[in-house]
Give the backbone structure.
Amino acid sequence: GASLLRSGARLVRARASTRSLASRTRTVTRAAAMEPPPKRAGVSKAAVGQMRATNDVEANFETCSTLARAAASQGCSILFLPECFAYIGIAGNDALAVMEPLDGPLMARYRQLAKDTGVWLSLGGFPETGPDADHRYNTHVLVNSDGDVCASYRKIHLFDVDIPNGPVLMESKTASPGDAIVAADSPIGRLGMTVCYDLRFPELYSRLRHEMGAQIMLVPSAFTKPTGEAHWEVLLRARAIETQSYVIAAAQAGVHSEKRESYGHAIIIDPWGKVLAKLEDPDNGIGIATADIDLGYLEDVRERIPVDKHRRKLETFKATVEKE
C-alpha cells in the first residue's frame, strides 16, 4: 500500500533502563515500589505504525522492517507496531502453530531488526508460548535499540464478543490472560503497556498512571471495523484525558481474510486529548505517522489540573444502592 509518512521535530535521545526482562517484570508488578520516571529534557520523536498482517510470517516481517527503516530515517527513537504484527491467521487457532517463547527464532529476528535500525520497537501482540498446547499468550514486547527484550506484558482482558453485523471472536478459546500490570522506561518516557481490548477497562490505565508513573499509554490494536467506527478514537482520547498522558495506538488495517477486517486509524494523542498524528486510510494506509513527545508539556497539563492530588481511593468508601 501507499506509505503515509509524516515528519516531526528534532529528536533528543535519552538513556533508558535496560535491565533484564526478569528484573523489569518484578519491578513493574509491584506498583507501590515504582520510582517516579526520570526527568527528561527536550522533545523526543515517536512513530506509530499501521499494517495489514496475514498468515504469511515472512511478508509481515518485511512490512515491519519497512516501517522500522522509515522510522529510523525520520529520526524517531521508537516505533510502535500493532497487535498481531507477526501473524494473523484465518481460523482462531492458527496462531498456536506459530507460538514460541520470547527467546525463540521469530522474536530473534525482530530483536535484530531493532539493533540494525537503532530504533526501539514496541511489538504490540506476539503469540508467546502459553501454559498448554491449546493456549498462547497475547504478549506486548518492548525491545531496545541493542536488541534486548526489556519488558513484556501479557494481555489481561481477552476479547470474547459476538459483534452485531460483525465477526464472532472468542479469544479465550486459544489464549490465556496475563496476571501482571507492566510499565517500562524508554527513550521517550515511561510506557504503560496494554493491548487492544484492555482499552475498555479504564481502571488499568488509572493504575498505570497514578501508581506506576506511566506517561505514555500504549494501545496496540486490531480493532474490528464495527467497533472501531463507533468507539476507537473516543475511547483513546478519553484515556488520554483521564490519565493526562500521551496515548499511542498502533493499528491493524484492512482485510486480513474473508472472516476478518480491522479498522485501522493508528493514532497519537497528547495529554490534553488533542490528536497529533493519525493514519486515516485503512485500505492503503500502510506506513507510519510521527509526533513529538514533550514531557515538559505533559507536566504542564498535569500541574494545570492536578487530578493526582485530588484523587481519592474510592475503594475505601462505603457504597450503597437505594432501592424503591
User: Anything to note?
Assistant: Residues 1-33 have pLDDT under 50 and may be disordered. The radius of gyration is 19 Å.
